[in-house]
Write a structure and sequence with these properties.
about 550 residues, 4-stranded antiparallel β-sheet, alpha/beta, about 10% strand, Aspartate Aminotransferase, domain 2, decarboxylase (chains A, B), 7-stranded mixed β-sheet, PyrdxlP-dep_Trfase_major (chains A, B), Putative pyridoxal-dependent aspartate 1-decarboxylase (chains A, B), homodimer, lyase (chains A, B), 21 helices
Amino acid sequence: MTAGKRAAEASLETLHRIFTIPEAPDSTLGRIEKEISENLAGFLGNHIVATEQALTDIEKDFAGAVIPEQPAFVSDHMHHLLDKLVSRSVHTSSPSFIGHMTSALPYFILPLSKLMVGLNQNLVKIETSKAFTPLERQVLGMMHRLVYSEHEDFYQNWMHSANHSLGAFCSGGTVANLTALWVARNNMLKADGDFKGVAREGLFKALKHYGYEGMAILVSERGHYSLKKSADVLGLGQESVIAIPTDDRNRIDCQKLEEKCQALAKDNIKVLSIVGVAGTTETGNIDPLSDMADIAEKYQCHFHVDAAWGGATLLSNKYRSLLDGIERADSVTIDAHKQMYVPMGAGLVVFKNPSSVAAIEHHAEYILRKGSKDLGSHTLEGSRPGMAMLVYASLHIISRPGYELLINQGIDKAKYFASLIDQHSEFELVTQPELCLLTYRYVPSQVQAFMATADVDTNQHINRLIDKLTKFIQKSQREAGKSFVSRTRIEVQKYGGVKVLVFRVVLANPLTTNEILEDILEEQVELAQKSIQYLPELIENTSF
Amino acid sequence: MTAGKRAAEASLETLHRIFTIPEAPDSTLGRIEKEISENLAGFLGNHIVATEQALTDIEKDFAGAVIPEQPAFVSDHMHHLLDKLVSRSVHTSSPSFIGHMTSALPYFILPLSKLMVGLNQNLVKIETSKAFTPLERQVLGMMHRLVYSEHEDFYQNWMHSANHSLGAFCSGGTVANLTALWVARNNMLKADGDFKGVAREGLFKALKHYGYEGMAILVSERGHYSLKKSADVLGLGQESVIAIPTDDRNRIDCQKLEEKCQALAKDNIKVLSIVGVAGTTETGNIDPLSDMADIAEKYQCHFHVDAAWGGATLLSNKYRSLLDGIERADSVTIDAHKQMYVPMGAGLVVFKNPSSVAAIEHHAEYILRKGSKDLGSHTLEGSRPGMAMLVYASLHIISRPGYELLINQGIDKAKYFASLIDQHSEFELVTQPELCLLTYRYVPSQVQAFMATADVDTNQHINRLIDKLTKFIQKSQREAGKSFVSRTRIEVQKYGGVKVLVFRVVLANPLTTNEILEDILEEQVELAQKSIQYLPELIENTSF
């Protein structure tokens, strides 16, 4: 059949069928759906091919730029997707894939997501979302209360107020951090006398009006890269983000933070925001938030806490005190798609002051009219899906105590894994878990003994050799497909602050068992032994 | 049972079940899912209550800020969601709801969305998305080719290149427009001599270095509000967005555009970008893109086209020439969740020059390492879901000719509706459809006759009375729940450019029939007759 003939077959009638006729339960799509519903883990296990394929090979199957001129049958296309895409996707929910910030999802999430997609609400305005708007406002209220514990009255007054907002729901932590700093910038450089504010007149005139030489955002050197990105977007420049050194537990050094504030004040550079990290991406540590709040107060700047990862810890009565001081933050980022176990695409930021979002308010003729409760008047994004429903349902079905169990078991598991690593003569624990993250590396016991007495220069050389081995093990393990730890590079104080490559694990998946953790270490020892290049070289260099 | 006791029941074992055990087909959730799968339209029709409820009433059900201390049974919570949320959501896919930019979705979208959620890939990096990364790059390549029609070699060279990107996939048009202007700003204020570029040093130093007094973004008065928001976020200020008047077909007046460029140059204000609109949100008109490209070239500024709505028209060989000149744009925004019939949360921007995204490139230690193909190094967002899969599948299953039929039928339907309105003595067509959007209002024939000879002041007064009637009809129709048109306020040339309230319809839903359109007019006539306040007042004021 010629292409022209096939294309002609795509009549309007055929197309209408696509919009009206559901898949038959015995069709390919129907069968796949049934399999996903009945046994998602089994489906993923069966269809995702464990062993590694080179990206360049995969790219060959996604090579053309021509939009097809012939319609594909749904069933044919589903086979294509299973074969070319699903089979080479990443099993992010596997209990033995502990290198990501993803986890298995509660089973009710899948049908709820389908409901969400079917309803296809647009949360930019009430007209296209109706009850989803108060629902999202309530979710923001709940998360606000989790952080700030204001009184009942506070929520009754502000949660559903048209001209206020307790926060902003968004696609993820990056947009949440950007929104927080946008609000901070616009409030700090607000209208004043003849000056109409940075939102209207821009940064150039704002700095001239206020007489600042520049602005700065201060965060520990473990701060997330989204802060630099935000500073770039907001016109402040990446260099306005100043990295403050950390202590041996990856927490910001408050003395150095304050010294920097003083130095900047002398240079007439205004500190826009101090940013505390509650759960660093690489090591899961939490800054001394209360001390930071004191400094922010003293220097009269915005205090933001990036709790994209650690925010969910507030749901644990046992561990929430780790984040003491977060209630003094002006804004807090929390990712629901991380430790709150909803799928990708659910971040949020809450604001202590319900009026602070007025600084980013905007209106249009056809929506977001003044006085309306449209959510879109206080968000960076415009059209947005009803993801808040998934958070809402999870908060109700799992409930606070259920989340506490999930958070606690993650931390306990991390402590158990840390003890395993500590006890094992061939591994070196690099960072202790404070939340459910830790880092470590494989270092044969005789190498550890050698390094204990070697000088800094020698150790630097040895560390470079260990780095190669670490990379080899991490890569081989990922390629073998049974399990996965990620890798990153962090400074280690005992080696004079030199950066070394480490394995990084995140133990948030409730299905990860102690046995899996033991197997992962065992596999890493085996892989190290197989390294005919890196291990011998390392041993040779550290023989007494 | 006390709260404490219930909470204690949420043991880890119970929680593990939530992560492993699928819903039984006969459970509430299972039944709901089956209903959605087998007959989504029926499900929505059955569960969404048509008649209007006051938002303040709905808010009462979403009032508390306390996160539940007791877990809810999944089935109980599902009943709660059906009762309190779904029943009061908006039937965005209803064929008679023609006021939104939403439509019914192809049936394969629902199971595919479920697959997407189940896979839970994170497209920020290859490590958590693998084959989804080349897939997204291919989708961007296809959309790039749709706009720019470069040669095969071009796509072979750049589509999968680590240091290039043909575009950025994102959550929607607002982020797409923001990304485009961010790229434009960073390229225009790039590193130069001692100056390290706006990305690193910020806007204040950038303008000082380049010696500009300010920057401007020029767009027609029909431009989307996201442009002002972007200007605010980017530190340029909302006032940097300058609205250029339009002609009687809502298209930018190029002579006035060029005059403004000249005036700004004299004031030493650099034009950052001229923005063409391809499908205005309110009227669906398309700017003269080719003429605008000439002006952008002459004034050496970025030329962006916001084709969030109209971009899909390029899929129609019959109508794509309406967008002639778009291939000269430096960047183009297209929303896949609009006329490409995928669900909420799928926008994208393509860039003519695959190197231009280098201006917003960023890296981190643990991901987005230099030379990697991680998509996150060139996007505003960080973690992102695999929505590109839905666009990919739709492009294959519907195919280009299928999309052409969908686009064409929308435009044809709008023309038919326009003719209905034109022929009807009681209606006034305000804007002719160029794409599938049009605006109109209800004006009794004797009022039309009166206005034809009345002076401007009288007509202004009459228009205010008609506005009240328009608002009444639109609101009553929405509240009755059978059908929905939206309303907006636009200038009308024949009344001296005064703004009037109009009904706005978007005819993208392939299931909207001619009968539905006829019924909508009929209902509006009936509603007008019922207006015991506004219609009599109007008639009285226009009696000869």
